[in-house]
Design goal:
74 residues; alpha+beta; 31% helix; elongated
């Protein structure tokens, strides 16, 4: 099996032309900013900090679900 550097994927452009691009071609990349993981607060009695951490964790979970839904070649 070829490495990703050696694989090509057929892509149909907006004008209907089919083009073969490298599997790692930058034009196939989508710019995404992911939420950075931070450990839970050391003081679990600070409900505000715990809530903020839980909200951040939910954004990370959404990012991971989005990644898992991507087609295998993306």
């Amino acid at each position: 099996m070829n490495s990703l550097h050696e694989r090509y994927i057929a892509v149909t452009r907006g004008d209907g032309r089919e083009e073969h691009l490298s599997a790692l071609d930058a034009s196939r990349m989508e710019k995404v900013d992911f939420v950075e993981f931070r450990p839970p607060p050391a003081n679990s009695s600070d409900q505000g900090a715990v809530d903020a951490w839980a909200e951040r964790a939910n954004y990370i979970l959404e990012d991971l679900r989005w990644l898992l839904k991507l087609p295998y070649d993306r």
